[in-house]
Amino acid sequence: MTVPTDSGERRRAGDRPPLVTELIDGATVQEITEQAWLALVGEDEVLVPLPAPMPADALSSWVEIVGPWTGSVVLTCGRDTALALTRALLREHAPEVLIKEEDVDDALGELANVVGGNVKAVLPGPSVLGLPETGSTPPPGREADTCRVDVLWRGEPLTVSVQSHAERENEVPL
Amino acid sequence: MKILVADDSRVMRQIVIRTLRQAGYDDHDIVEAEDGRDAYDKVRSESPDLVLSDWNMPNMTGLECLQALRGSGSSVPFGFVTSEGSAEMREKAADAGALFLIAKPFTADTFTEHLEGVLA
């Protein structure tokens, strides 16, 4: 009788950090985003699932998720769209003419925070959600570890990307 | 009646206040706090009848604020309004003494459902 030897390969394969595409799909990300839009932006605000070229002056907001899957939920749109979103969120509190940059950062960051919090709830835990940040669009994660949704809001492009960091620090090659 | 709304996002504070009005709580005084530390201080100085607090905030989180309040003997009614509504967080909130956790995004109906017993 021969005793099978355990090379350990199987365990290592099982310990591979999960890809986000194994944990969440585009339909779920889109549904989460639509719920956030209806509740925060306005009950008549629809998102049309169509890709379109992003303007050069794109702005992003994101929240980091750290846990069994680690990465970010990144919301990206043109600067004019970000201004329109801020006005929609502030409604009667929006200034007549000039919207401050800090209000745009706040509004876009809070949208990423709400979408990110609900994405986190779908992913395996325990995990921690970071505070929202806003700035230039971060580099995309690995394509295989990215779940991206392209939509149009009021005819303008907007993307929501659940993506790993560009270089995964926690990945150990087999 | 006085409600303290704590959130590090000014935009979200406005949305919470607007939703309170839509839910029929438009005759209450509103006090705003911009993080957990500010909320803790304003519970002391403003004596609100209810605190509606975000969870994830700089300086002091909503949970730390609630724990500090309970540790100092305050029994102010406290509810979370947060983007994270997992079972784990609801349990942590309840264990710390929160009355409810409203997950963002929310509607006026959600507010009514949770607040009518508290602000009756």
Biggest interface, CB < 8 A = A-B, 27 and 22 residues
Radius of gyration of chain A: 19 Å
Mean pLDDT of chain A: 87
User: Which strand order spans the largest sheet of chain B, edge to edge or round the barrel?
Assistant: 2-1-3-4-5
Q: Which CATH-level-2 architecture of chain B?
A: 3-Layer(aba) Sandwich
| CATH topology group of chain A | Chemotaxis protein chec
CATH topology of chain B: Rossmann fold
Elements of chain B, N to C (H/E)? EHEHEHEHEH
Distance between the termini of chain A: 30 Å
The top-level CATH class of chain B is Alpha Beta
Q: Just name the CATH architecture of chain A.
A: 3-Layer(aba) Sandwich
Q: What's the total count of β strands of chain A?
A: 7
* CATH H-level homologous superfamily name of chain A: CheC-like
What spatial form of chain B do the alpha-carbon principal axes imply?
A: globular
CATH level-four homologous superfamily name of chain B: Response regulator
CATH class of chain A: Alpha Beta
Q: State the helicity of chain B in percent bands.
A: 40-55%
Q: Provide the helix percentage of chain A.
A: 25-40%
Helix and strand run of chain A: HHEEEHHEEEE
* Largest beta-sheet details of chain A: 7 strands, antiparallel
Please tell me the total number of domains of chain B: 1
